[in-house]
Structure formats: structure tokens, C-alpha cells
Amino acid sequence: MKNNISQLRKKHSMTQKELADLLKVSRQTIISLERGKYNPSILLAYQISKLFNKTIEEVFVFEEESN
């Protein structure tokens, strides 16, 4: 799943560590999220969206799989 976390974090002049601390997750989790290697729980997605004052859809890009 693609997301805009890196752009939002940089727009707010925030390091990966600062974002991780605010969300109470590891910096590695933030790195994995930004690289699209990790899909967050709905709770974490909500917390990230709320932190940046965005909707979940504005932060995360859901792509349907074609069968």
C-alpha cells in the first residue's frame, strides 16, 4: 500500500524518530511504512491521519488487486 507519510512528515519538519516517538512505535516501523513494506493496523493508520490532521484516504492510497 502506498502512502504519503514521508511527504507529510517532511512538510512538518519532523524526523522519523520524532514521528515514531509521537506514535509510540519504533523508528524501524516508520521506515517500513514509508517504504511501503508494512501495512499499519487500522488504529495506527487512524493515529497517523489524526496527527497530520488528514483523513486516512489522504494519507494512504488503497489499490485494489486485479484478479
Give descriptors for this structure:
5 helices, mainly alpha, 434 Repressor (Amino-terminal Domain), globular, 67 residues
Q: From the helix content, strand content and strand pairing, which structural class follows? A: mainly alpha
Shape assignment:
globular
Number of domains: 1
In total, the number of strands is: 2
Task: Estimate the strand proportion.
Answer: 5-15%
CATH superfamily: lambda repressor-like DNA-binding domains
Strand line-up of the largest beta sheet:
1-2
Distance N to C terminus: 17 Å
Subunit organisation of the chains: single chain
CATH architecture: Orthogonal Bundle
CATH class: Mainly Alpha
User: Helical segment tally?
Assistant: 5
Overview of the structural elements:
- The protein is mainly α and 67 residues long.
- It has one domain (2-61): 434 Repressor (Amino-terminal Domain) (Orthogonal Bundle), CATH 1.10.260.
- The chain has helices at 5-11, 16-23, 27-34, 42-51, 56-59, and strands at 2-3, 60-61.
- The chain has a two-stranded antiparallel ribbon with strand order 1-2.
- The longest helix has 10 residues, at 42-51.
- The model has no long low-confidence stretch (mean pLDDT 95).
Layout of strands and helices, then pairs:
Elements: E1 2-3, H1 5-11, H2 16-23, H3 27-34, H4 42-51, H5 56-59, E2 60-61
Antiparallel strand pairs: 1-2
